[in-house]
Amino acid sequence: MSAHAHTTTLPASACGRVVASYGRHLLVEADDGRRVRCHPRGKRTEAVVGDWVDWQPSGDEGVITAIHPRRSLLRRQDELRTKTLAANVDQVLIMLAAEPVFSDEHLSRALIAARDADVAPLIVLNKRDVQPAFDEAWQRLEPYRAMGETVLPLCVGGAVPDDGMEALWPHLQGRATLVMGASGVGKSTLINRLVPGAQAQTQAISRALGTGRHTTTHTTWYWLDEARRSAIVDSPGFHAFGLHHIEPRRLASLMPDIAAHLGGCRFANCTHRQEPGCAVRAALAPQGPLSPRRWQLYQALYDELARAQQPYG
Ligand SMILES: Nc1nc2c(ncn2[C@@H]2O[C@H](COP(=O)(O)OP(=O)(O)OP(=O)(O)O)[C@@H](O)[C@H]2O)c(=O)[nH]1
Ligand SMILES: [Zn+2]
């Protein structure tokens, strides 16, 4: 075969979006909406859900040949290491509920990871019908509202006149939103309300990718509108982001209530832990507005990130 004949018989590569992943199996959606099962060509083309990719047909499957530059990349925390979770997400919906009671530390970690990835966080408090637990949880979220976070009430699975879905919708429009939250907060209930056929779709994808129904680490990108402008990304069993790739010195800038006091420290390289003349420590309550618990969390996370930077430490 001549070189010329070879190039003309090579199938043209097309552009597409990774809409589902089950381990190394990927489903790519082409521009015309067609969905093709794809494999990465090599280590450098290991795409994740949300990625824009170039792919080439290969039999009735496809091969991913290139990954387009990512607008954002979120990582999940595994037992041992951080793994990529989703790319090109604009927003992370952190779902909390009246019950189970949420942990301030988990919430803070999620907010830090989102900000680090340049992804806007949106806090949603579900189960408004569960009282007085809901009102208590709403109160506990006051400090987060004070530092500028958006918090929306929701009652996605309860029978109340205003379930909060109408107020949530404008926040989802025109964006790709990843949903995360502890077990039992109502994530599946929310996904099923937003994407009525979600469960059936997931089963169909699972069949298309030839994986068993017990696969746990799968992520799915669902379009919320015909125009394919708004999407919701579901990753069942995903509870915590990985933080260990974050440089400890960046941490203060990722916590808005601490970041508010940066710039006034005596030392330019202040780590805001024990240095004299630290503007962050000077802002601690009762003299200032900064909650001592948040500063303690900052210190604990700083130490954790510093340890993670030393591979054998
Ligand atoms: N009272 C009340 N219960 C709700 C509400 N939303 C969801 N639930 C219930 O909470 C339970 C957990 O909901 P799921 O949607 O399965 O929660 P999940 O976050 O997907 O949980 P995992 O699958 O374990 O991660 C179910 O029994 C739901 O019916 C709500 O607004 N009010
Ligand atoms: Zn300082």
- SSE order, one letter for each helix or strand: HEEEEEEEEHEHHEHEHHEEHHH
Give me the side-by-side strand order of the main sheet: 1-2-3-5-4
Q: What is the typical, i.e. mean, pLDDT? A: 89
Summarize the biggest pleated sheet.
5 strands, mixed, barrel
Q: Judging by the overall fold, what is the CATH architecture of the largest domain?
A: 3-Layer(aba) Sandwich
Helix-strand category:
alpha/beta
What count of helical segments does DSSP give?
A: 10
Q: What would the CATH topology of the largest domain be?
A: Rossmann fold
The tally of structural domains comes to: 3
CATH class of the largest domain: Alpha Beta
Beta percentage is: 25-35%
Pick out the low-confidence regions: 1-9
Q: Give the overall shape, derived from the CA principal axes.
A: globular
What is the helix fraction of residues, given as a range?
25-40%
CATH homologous superfamily classification of the largest domain = P-loop containing nucleotide triphosphate hydrolases
Distance between the termini: 57 Å
Report the bound ligands by name, code or SMILES.
Answer: guanosine-5'-triphosphate, zinc ion
Binding site for GTP: 126-129, 181-189
Domain EngC GTPase: 87-239
Family: Belongs to the TRAFAC class YlqF/YawG GTPase family. RsgA subfamily.
Main location: cytoplasm
Walk me through what this model shows.
The protein has 313 residues and is α/β, with parallel strands linked by helices. The chain has three domains: 65 residues, Nucleic acid-binding proteins (OB fold (Dihydrolipoamide Acetyltransferase, E2P)), CATH 2.40.50.140; 162 residues, Rossmann fold (3-Layer(aba) Sandwich); 62 residues, Ribonucleotide Reductase Protein R1, domain 1. The strands form two sheets. The protein has a five-stranded mixed barrel with strand order 1-2-3-5-4. A two-stranded antiparallel ribbon has the order 6-7. The N terminus is likely disordered. The structure holds guanosine-5'-triphosphate (GTP) and zinc ion. Guanosine-5'-triphosphate binds next to helix 6.
